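This entry is passed on directly below:
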Amino acid sequence: MRFFPRDYQDRTKVRTIAQLRYGETVCVRARAVERARTVRVPSGLLLSRVVVSDDENALTVTFFNRKYAAESITPGVAYIFYGKIGGKGGRLEMLNPDFEPEAAQGKRTSAIIPVYRLTAGMGRARLSAAIENALEICKGELTDPIPESVRREYGLMGAPEAYKNIHFPESWEVLSEARRRMVFEELFLFSLGLSLLRERRTGKSGPVIDRTDLGPYLRALPYSLTRAQRHCVDEALADMSSGRLMNRLIQGDVGSGKTAVAAACAFCAVQSGYQCALMAPTEILAKQHFQTLSQIFENCGYRVELLTGGMTAASKRGAQERIASGEARLIIGTHALISKGVEYANLGLVITDEQHRFGVTQRAELASKGAQPHVLVMSATPIPRTMALILYGDLDISVIEGMPPGRIPVKTYSVDDSYRARIYDFMRKLVREGRQVFVVCPAIEDNEEMPMKSVEEYGREMREEIFPDLRVDCIHGRMHPAEKEAVMERFASNGSDILVATTVIEVGMDVPNAALMVVENAERFGLSQLHQLRGRVGRGKNESYCVLISNNPGDDTKARLDIMCRTNDGFKIAEEDLRIRGPGDFFGSRQHGLPEFRIADISYDVRILNDAQRAAQECVKMLSAPGGAESDMLLAGVGAFFSKDAVFN
């Protein structure tokens, strides 16, 4: 039922032949002057031509490999033809049109015609007929998941009428109302589902983690927390000390200090007698967290344990024993933290870093290792608030605004190939000064159809021809995980000068010594992704740079890359990215287990989203006393909209 048109063609306006213009696609009313004539051209193509007239002017209608259709046109009968106007030497012709007798118009012409995503073997006419039959069969049996009171309050048409006019609209005005209704339904069911999840979560009790003395932790930090960081710590500690279960997102720009906030929460959990598990997306990032936090926690008498897939079997066994016994209080690792055989003695807090790299399933798996532990997730991908409500609607959100003092903004430049020699000279200069360089390419290997820089070929060229005297490494997603980790580890420990990579280094690499990020074919990346890549540099005390190389002369490319040069504010960049690209798959939302929006567009339908969320909040009250027909209908609608794994009743 939720298969909707992707677009519509306006075939309502009928022109005379005299009004036709080259290149436009229009409807024409005309009669065939003679029967079709068909010839086979040297290429093997069958060309069928029919001369038609509207009593004042004549027009040739040409069909390609559609002899049967052309020969079905009866001379003297009035037809409505819809097609593109072409021609040579001033003589216009209509190419390969749809048509139907004027007496039967409305199916293919003189109407608003839906355009669907088609599969092989299924043409538009067959699909439309199947949809029409389905609507007729279901007429009178369609249940409406939106309560009548909500439809009345927001002026929404009923489900049967909306489905009919989405597929076979009577007018553009009615189509607009049908679309508004269906968009409202998607966003209403989504918001209601998240509200139900939030209601059930807030009803659960969690371990009481006292607001203990953070003094030892704060004194061990080499810097002071900013006001924004302290505010986020206070929000999380208010949750954890309340007796209610916490599910909170800490969102902040690259380098805003999310880890320091999460570590403060972990310190309180450990001081209250609980264990805390911190899961990172890569082994190198897990090791970096381990090195940083073990110094702080162990000085206060708390053991920090590392658990990753790359450890030896003996090391894993030892770590698992200390975790199970409770000796290990802060456990840092990768997916190994949720592997079979890992048991926790008293898990009170779960922290996931770079949340969008995991998804709700892995978050839940880690949480299931304890008896209702608090959950804190971190994301360095700035997301506009509207998108955050969609991606993390079941979480409370804390935002670290601003950057810690002393952080030097990365200088960003957008250039074309004419600057390449200067860029190479600058790379060599930085390496001579002891600094390191990232080079990011959009492809792993060369592709003749889409010429762009590839890691394998460009890495070879840099190693053998451009910088034969420097240490050049390559990394991409097809490499074995152990090999990738080794390359990243080598670069992080200053064992290589230049790292040529795909976006595999977008997160999980903290190399303060890296001073330059060069992005090849920058037009092929989204703005938020470019911002994440830029965030790999500027992490130390020295000035750093980002160079975006693009030979695309288009105004759109220039405007997008200029945004990167104007601001280092990830939230402003994310707003622009969402506006330009639309929500689409903003950063892989499918992995979150979210339902797919078939018709709603979050960047376009913000007003409807606000109405739908308000209506959903009202309906949550209705569901607090389940058992009625409307309650059952709402639960059924929400359950059908979400994945089969979601349980709402």
About this structure: The longest strand covers residues 78-88.
